[in-house]
Amino acid sequence: MEITPSILTADFCQLGNTLDEAIDAGINWIHMDVMDGNWVVNRTITFGPAIIRSVRDRLGPDVFIDCHLMINNAEETWEQYADAGVNLIIAHIEAVQDFSQFITTVRQANVQVGCVLNPDTPASDVLSLIPELDLLLVMSVVPGKGGQSFMPEMEDKVRYFREIIDKQIQSGGRPTKLMIDGGIKSHNAAKVAEWGIDIAVVGSGLINNQGSIKYNLNLIYEALNNQF
Ligand code: DX5
Ligand code: ZN
After folding, report:
1. Given 11, 20, 33, 36, which residue is catalytic?
2. What's the confidence (pLDDT) of residue 93?
3. Which pTM was predicted?
4. Closest among 210, 181, 182, 179 to 196, alpha carbons compared
5. Quick one: pLDDT at residue 227?
6. pLDDT above 70 covers what percent of the chain?
7. N or C: the chain end with fewer CB closer than 10 Å?
8. How many domains does the chain have?
9. Is 13 helix (H, G, I), strand (E, B) or coil?
10. Has residue 70 got a pLDDT over 80?
11. What is the DSSP string of 122-150?
12. Which domain holds residue 97?
């Protein structure tokens, strides 16, 4: 299972150094959480395309960057994130009116496209989209902030998606990636890997006051290695 840091708990004055530290530790995928002060229930504002552009410039072209859009009107603004240099745009099924159209439009710009669903959104709401998606993201917290508790009840949803995606790949379909986001730490990383997650977003479990990113990442890798 691949690990990608969410930078929400970083000291933004130190962001460049934090990113360098992550890359040094072997990370090659960064997850950028965009909130517009409207869409998430707690009305948080994080950052927008300008910061993402700086991150892209700092990291160069080889690091994969996704942006998780927790915003209204993603249909109207996604291009700003593409222009800022993201590889993959992930939008919420609950926030986009015509998601099939959204996929077509984003893909035409040569940017990968993902769909994310909230903990209380049923799996059935995204089923028909999976064959067209580069990535499907299951939220394991209610979006809005870092450092929340993991929701273990997402297990059935994740296992169900794993089965569907495996069948899709076996029959020659798109190799849609399965990601999880929220509350992942060294104590539950092995569990979600066993559920069949390809990529786990880790925020406060990596960027915190307890240890360096390298140290925290090693704790997670050790947990994953001890799994078998
Ligand atoms: C939640 C965000 C996350 C999250 C991750 O709204 O999408 O990416 O902050 O942080 P942790 O790992 O601390 O839950
Ligand atoms: Zn996120």
Report:
1. 33
2. 98
3. 0.97
4. 179
5. 73
6. 100
7. C
8. 1
9. helix
10. yes
11. -GGGTGGGGGG-SEEEEESS-SS-SSPPP
12. 2-227
Q: For ligand 1, say whether the CB of 181 is within 6 Å of any of its atoms.
A: yes
Whether the Cβ atoms of residue 180 and residue 158 lie closer than 8 Å to each other: yes
pLDDT exceeds cutoff 60 at 181: yes
DSSP labels, 189-200 = HHHHHHHT-SEE
Q: Which of 3, 29, 33 to mutate to test the pocket of ligand 1 (most atoms within 8 A of CB)?
A: 33
Q: Is there a contact between 145 and 155 (Cβ–Cβ < 8 Å)?
A: no
The H or E element containing residue 64 is strand 64-70
What SS3 state is found at 23?
Answer: helix
Question: Tens of pLDDT along 144-157?
Answer: 999 999 999 999 99
* Count of Cβ atoms closer than 10 Å to residue 24 Cβ: 11
185 lines ligand 1 (CB under 6 A): no
pLDDT digits (tens, 9 = 90+) for 86-116: 999 999 999 999 999 999 999 999 999 999 9
The answer, yes or no, to whether residue 228 has pLDDT greater than 70, is no
Which 3 state secondary structure label does DSSP give 209?
Answer: coil
**CA gap 123, 55 in Å, rounded:** 33
Q: Which atom of ligand 1 is nearest to the CA of 139?
A: 7
**Helical H runs in the chain?**
15-24, 49-59, 74-83, 99-108, 155-170, 189-195, 213-225
CATH number for the domain spanning 125: value is 3.20.20.70
Contacts (Cβ under 8 Å, ≥6 apart) of 181: 6, 31, 68, 116, 137, 138, 139, 140, 141, 200, 201
